[in-house]
Design brief:
31% of the residues lie in helices and 24% in strands. It has 262 residues and is α/β, with parallel strands linked by helices. It has a single domain, classed as Rossmann fold (3-Layer(aba) Sandwich), CATH 3.40.50. The strands form two sheets. An eight-stranded mixed beta sheet has the order 1-9-10-6-5-2-3-4, with helices on both faces. A two-stranded antiparallel ribbon has the order 7-8. Helix 5 links the parallel strand 5 and strand 6. The longest helix has 17 residues. The radius of gyration is 18 Å and the shape is globular. It starts with 18 loop residues before the first strand and ends with a strand. The relative contact order is 0.14. Bound molecules: S-adenosylmethionine. S-adenosylmethionine binds next to strand 3.
Length: 262
């Protein structure tokens, strides 16, 4: 939680508003934005800073291109991550080769494979002399809009949406096993267009979590990125297409914050 003793609440950069307009993605340090489907570093930065303290452990079950890990390094938090993309895991680990300031374990692992996930994360926690993590971050694929790998257990390869949601809940259930009671967990999700209509995927995932796990909902943050690369320079054509048809341009995503009650 926010450290009132060591930080001035008047001047902290922690954003307590529920609408975040982010003008530019943070590209400092190790962030290189090579991965289509990554989140802006400002998201893990805010969550880590608000809900953990120095030397705490952050678990990111869809660690991707290492955005959360790099923020953990910046903020001096230890890290455990899993991702099903082995090449990416190796790439991220190679960027961390010379890091000694934090302990981190970024694992090639299918987070829906309960036995293997438990074995790996338990082992990482043993190395950290801990039984639980202090914060869980989860940024799953937005169903199948971006195919991340060819692995059939990759959530982005599931074609039926209800099956996707069920498998996502398995991932969350596995991750939550390791979150301390009273710890916070954060799901970053977006909506999608399919067959000429909006599918409110973010809300479906949020509802599935509330139904499945004993938790309190602490925040629904809407994040809007102004400099969305896919739309830069083509603003005119996108606006034209939206007006010509009957839809709106997606720029936002949701950050759902929950507190685990068990
Ligand atoms: C939206 S991306 C996460 C991006 C990450 N937040 C970042 O900033 O780079 C989703 C990630 O989930 C991974 N993934 C999909 N299914 C998985 C599974 N069953 N177990 C572990 N990782 C999985 C994909 O490889 C992809 O890297």
């Amino acid at each position: 939680m926010f450290d009132f003793q060591n930080e001035d609440w008047h001047t902290t950069d922690i954003d307590v508003d529920s609408l975040w307009i982010i003008n530019k993605r943070d590209s400092s340090g190790k962030h290189s934005n090579i991965y289509h489907g990554n989140f802006v570093p400002q998201i893990p930065y805010q969550m880590i800073k608000r809900y953990t303290k120095t030397n705490d452990i952050v678990l990111d079950i869809f660690s991707g291109s290492g955005t959360t890990l790099f923020e953990c390094e910046k903020l001096n938090r230890n890290f455990i991550g899993t991702d099903i993309n082995s090449e990416l895991v190796n790439y991220v680990n190679s960027k961390m080769e010379s890091t000694t300031s934090i302990k981190f374990y970024n694992n090639y692992c299918d987070n829906t494979d309960t036995e293997n996930f438990k074995r790996i994360v338990s082992h990482n926690l043993d190395q950290l002399n801990s039984e639980k993590v202090d914060l869980l971050l989860s940024h799953p694929p937005y169903w199948n809009i971006i195919k991340f790998t060819n692995d059939p257990n990759d959530l982005s390869n599931i074609n039926d949406m209800n099956e996707f949601i069920d498998r996502f809940i398995v991932s969350m259930s596995n991750g939550l096993l390791f979150l301390k009671k009273g710890g916070y967990f954060v799901v970053v999700a977006g909506d999608i267009y399919r067959n000429s209509e909006v599918i409110p995927l973010g809300f479906y995932l949020m509802y599935a979590i509330k139904k499945q796990f004993k938790c309190k909902m602490k925040g629904i943050i809407v994040k809007n990125i102004e400099g969305n690369r896919g739309k830069i320079g083509a603003n005119g054509i996108w606006k034209y297409r939206a007006l010509k048809s009957d839809y709106y341009l997606f720029k936002h995503e949701y950050i759902f914050v929950f507190k685990k009650e068990w």
